[in-house]
């Protein structure tokens, strides 16, 4: 279920500029928070998937989605929504793991983009 992504699908700077009235200091703060919390949220989600804990999967997926919404990470948000939908159906772990593989790839790319943005400021 590999979803192709381009940089704009992972990080939409225009969206952040709109949201924060082109306040670069505020944008940098949001990006730094994202860089800090996304890996931990992602790790918690992976643990919940491995434990097949649907309540925790939904909780951690929702936390990741909130951060991704502020970054305009459309493809990654869709993967998260699909993971959340699987919790409603008590889907087998294999379905979560397939989506999680795509999520992890997108998050790795996103964090690289965010770090590059911060380093170029």
What key attributes describe this structure?
6 helices; mainly alpha; Four Helix Bundle (Hemerythrin (Met), subunit A); 121 residues; single chain
Q: Briefly note the structural class of the backbone.
A: mainly alpha
* CATH homologous superfamily annotation: HPT domain
Low-confidence stretches: none
Count, helices? 6
Shape: elongated
Give the count of structural domains. Answer: 1
Radius of gyration of CA atoms, rounded to a whole number: 14 Å
CATH class type: Mainly Alpha
Record field, number of beta strands = 0
The proportion of residues in beta strands is under 5%
CATH topology: Four Helix Bundle (Hemerythrin (Met), subunit A)
Write the H/E string, N to C.
HHHHHH
Task: Indicate the CATH architecture.
Answer: Up-down Bundle
The end-to-end distance, rounded to whole angstroms, is 35 Å
The share of residues in helices is over 70%
**Sheet having the most strands:** none
Task: Describe the protein in words.
The protein is built from 6 helices and no strands. The chain is mainly α and 121 residues long. The chain has a single domain, classed as HPT domain (Four Helix Bundle (Hemerythrin (Met), subunit A)), CATH 1.20.120.
Topology:
Blueprint: H1 7-10, H2 13-19, H3 24-50, H4 54-71, H5 74-88, H6 93-119
Helix pairs in contact: 3-4, 3-6, 4-5, 5-6
A few lines on this structure:
It is built from six helices and no strands. With 121 residues, it is mostly helical.
């Amino acid at each position: 279920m590999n979803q192709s992504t381009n940089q704009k699908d992972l990080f939409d700077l225009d969206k952040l500029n709109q949201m924060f009235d082109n306040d670069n200091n505020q944008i940098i703060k949001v990006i730094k928070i994202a860089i800090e919390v996304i890996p931990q949220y992602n790790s918690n989600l992976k643990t919940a998937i491995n434990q097949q804990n649907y309540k925790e999967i939904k909780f951690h997926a929702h936390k990741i989605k909130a951060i991704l919404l502020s970054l305009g990470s459309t493809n990654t948000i869709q993967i998260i929504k699909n993971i959340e939908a699987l919790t409603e159906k008590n889907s087998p772990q294999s379905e979560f793991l397939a989506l999680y593989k795509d999520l992890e790839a997108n998050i790795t790319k996103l964090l690289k983009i965010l770090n590059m943005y911060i380093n170029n400021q």
